[in-house]
User: Which sequence fits this backbone?
């Protein structure tokens, strides 16, 4: 089988077509592929070699695509009349010799643009806010965040932090770099970054930050983080200082191994509280050792009290990283002064 290597382009009316080939027979699977898209929908389709003249879409292998290389160096793909590119001769486009075709500007230039933000109104806890999204169809990319109403300095500072995730230029967009990384090895990609409120009060705001990403490689990457902002100042609050340090002495992989700090009864009582909260999640048998695996915990306020979520990368046990909910009444003995003030405010909210 011959190698097919390069970038080709064509046009049907106002719609541009781009095709790249990184076909090296005898090489690993992802080094023998073709990618094609049109500016009608910007969706990149990956084709894998079936024979010397046929290819199949990676996600629909029964739809065979024929590929013919013409005498002038043009190529023609044929599949279905529903495909705008089917049967259209595509002329070769020169690109840098030292760049893989599918990551070159010759292939990607028509799809490099920053989509306009999409906004919609939303509401939580009686507070209206605006959801803002940038959706990139060619890279299966989406960045979604939100903006709060108000003109105070604290709100302005929080909104500035929340909208940092929105790209200001196409070339700087993380989902664009993600598609290039994936295309370099002949892989598909997706990028979803979602920032959303979990709880809004007139004193603080709890924000959930989720990234679900695949840019080629062995497996996708999934990460969840929580941030708590002070509404008055706009500063991010260090919630790790809300729980007494000695409360964690009997938890984690080094439980009881260091020099004792504080009150041993506090450590013992807090572990019992965490065991009870963990049992309430109905953990699977494979997750029974969670409290002995997690070294550090993310802390955030909730409507009921506090939620503690593992902040460690637990590797194969990452599916066990569930949040443990502790009530205001149960957690109070283990709080620092800063945590006690916050919990007092939460109690007032609950009693309204």
Assistant:
């Amino acid at each position: 089988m011959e190698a097919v290597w390069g970038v080709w382009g064509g046009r049907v009316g106002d719609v541009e077509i781009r095709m790249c080939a990184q076909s090296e027979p005898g090489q690993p699977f992802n080094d023998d592929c073709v990618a094609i898209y049109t500016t009608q929908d910007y969706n990149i389709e990956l084709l894998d070699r079936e024979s010397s003249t046929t290819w199949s879409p990676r996600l629909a292998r029964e739809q065979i695509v024929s590929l013919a290389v013409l005498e002038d160096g043009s190529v023609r793909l044929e599949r279905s009349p529903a495909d705008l590119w089917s049967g259209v001769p595509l002329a070769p486009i020169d690109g840098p010799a030292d760049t893989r075709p599918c990551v070159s500007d010759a292939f990607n230039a028509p799809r490099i643009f920053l989509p306009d933000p999409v906004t919609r109104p939303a509401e939580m806890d009686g507070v209206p806010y605006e959801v803002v999204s940038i959706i990139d169809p060619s890279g299966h990319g989406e960045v979604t965040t939100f903006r709060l109403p108000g003109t105070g300095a604290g709100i302005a500072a929080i909104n500035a932090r929340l909208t940092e995730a929105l790209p200001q230029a196409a070339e700087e967009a993380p989902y664009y770099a993600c598609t290039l990384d994936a295309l370099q090895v002949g892989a598909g990609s997706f990028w979803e970054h979602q920032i959303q409120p979990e709880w809004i009060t007139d004193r603080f705001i709890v924000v959930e930050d989720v990234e679900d990403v695949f840019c080629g490689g062995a497996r996708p990457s999934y990460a969840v983080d929580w941030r708590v902002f002070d509404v008055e100042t706009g500063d991010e609050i260090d919630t790790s200082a809300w729980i007494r340090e000695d409360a964690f002495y009997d938890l984690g992989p080094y439980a009881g191994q260091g020099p004792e700090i504080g009150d041993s009864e506090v450590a013992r009582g807090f572990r019992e509280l965490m065991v009870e909260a963990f049992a309430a999640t109905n953990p699977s048998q494979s997750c029974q050792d969670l409290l002995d695996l997690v070294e550090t915990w993310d802390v955030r306020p909730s409507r009921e009290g506090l939620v503690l979520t593992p902040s460690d990368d637990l590797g194969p046990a990452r599916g066990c990283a569930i949040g443990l909910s502790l009530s205001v009444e149960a957690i109070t003995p283990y709080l620092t002064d800063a945590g006690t003030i916050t919990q007092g405010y939460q109690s007032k909210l609950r009693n309204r």
User: Anything to note?
Assistant: The first helix runs from residue 105 to 108. Residues 118-230 form a domain with the Heat Shock Protein 90 fold (CATH 3.30.565.40). The CA atoms of residues 305 and 327 lie 4 Å apart.
